[in-house]
Structure formats: C-alpha cells, structure tokens
Design goal:
Layout: E1 3-9, E2 13-20, E3 27-30, H1 34-47, E4 50-57, H2 64-82, E5 91-98, E6 101-108, E7 114-118, E8 125-126, E9 129-130, H3 132-145, E10 148-155, H4 159-177
Parallel strand pairs: 3-4, 7-10
Antiparallel strand pairs: 1-2, 2-4, 5-6, 6-10, 8-9
Helix pairs in contact: 1-4, 2-3
C-alpha cells in the first residue's frame, strides 16, 4: 500500500496532500495559483499517481509560501509512500520535449536529498506564479522526499514550455524510479 496523507499548518499556509503511487493519474488540485495547479495536474497525470492537494496560503503577499509548503508536504508524502524504498527501481531519468523546449530529469530515491537545477527563465511570472518558484518547489520536494534530483532545460524559448517540460520529465522519471521490482533495497549496503 503505497499511499500517504499528510498536512501542515503554519501562520502562512494550510496544506493537505493525499497521494497514491499506484493510482490512475487522477488529480484534485486546489492551490489558488492557476499555473501551479496546471503543473501539479501534469505531474500526477504523467506519473500515473493519484494526487489531491488543497492549499490555502498568504497569496496576498505572493505565491512563495504556498508553493514551497506544497513542495514540503508533497515531498514528505512521497517519502512516506515509498517506505524503506525496498522493491523499487530506485533510479529514473526522462527527457520531455515541449515544443521548442527540452526538459530533462534524473533522480535517485536515495535518502540523500540534493537538487541540481539548470533552467534559465526569460520572465519573472507565468500567470500568477513566479518562475523562480519552479526551482523552489523542486528543492522543497527533493529535501523532504529524500531524493537526489537533477533537472535541466538545455534549450527553449517559452517559459511555460520550459516549466511544463520539467514537471513532466520529473513525473516520468519518478514513475520509472518508483516502479516495483522483485528485489529488496537496491543498494550494496542493503539499506538506504
């Protein structure tokens, strides 16, 4: 049973996440940030996971706290759903072309959080979402999921396409890494 339900409430945000790694790719996403909702919907659709996210945040300030805190809770939910990380492929990588942009993700469900992010955005905003928050979301997710995460867009012109290519590449790489295997923990140490 690779499911998790978690919530986090602070003076800035109130986040609830429900995750099923063996779902059908269905999402119920409500963050108050239209572009971010679009990205999270793409993530669950392409990863084949069921994901519910309900977030209320101080959007009158900006989108930062809401997006970062969703990343924190989603990362924690992923960590919980993956358990001891036994019986999964562990590694995943994927390229996604999105029109003129190319997104790449390589990840290791290692228990060692790390983010390498290479993507140059042209503008400050995509709808109601700051482009800088793409990196912040993935940093919060990687640190709280305990995954080593490398994301890059080697080329592209449209910021929407760049961001969407990254979310979809992450989704497909996660799907590969979380795939069930017949073995135990994939490590010479025997544990992660």
């Amino acid at each position: 049973m690779r499911k998790a339900e978690l919530s986090r409430k602070t003076r800035e945000t109130d986040i609830a996440v429900s995750l099923d790694l063996d779902g059908k790719g269905k999402g119920v996403i409500e963050t108050g940030i239209g572009f971010f909702d679009h990205m999270l919907t793409a993530l669950c659709t392409h990863a084949g996971i069921d994901l519910a996210v309900k977030a209320a945040g101080d959007l009158e300030v900006d989108c930062h706290h809401t997006i970062e805190d969703v990343g924190i809770v989603l990362g924690q939910a992923l960590c919980k759903a993956l358990g001891d990380k036994g019986g999964i492929a562990r590694y995943g990588s994927f390229y996604v072309p999105m029109d003129e942009a190319l997104g790449f993700c390589a990840l290791d469900v290692s228990g060692r959080p790390f983010l390498r992010f290479e993507c140059a955005f042209q503008h400050a905003m995509m709808g109601g979402m700051e482009t800088a928050m793409v990196e912040e979301f993935f940093r919060a997710l990687a640190m709280n999921a305990g995954i080593t995460l490398h994301l890059s867009v080697p080329y592209g012109a449209n910021d929407h396409h760049k961001a969407e290519a990254l979310f979809k590449a992450f989704a497909h790489a996660l799907k590969v890494a979380a795939a069930r295997t017949d073995g135990g923990v994939l490590s010479t140490k025997g544990v992660l």
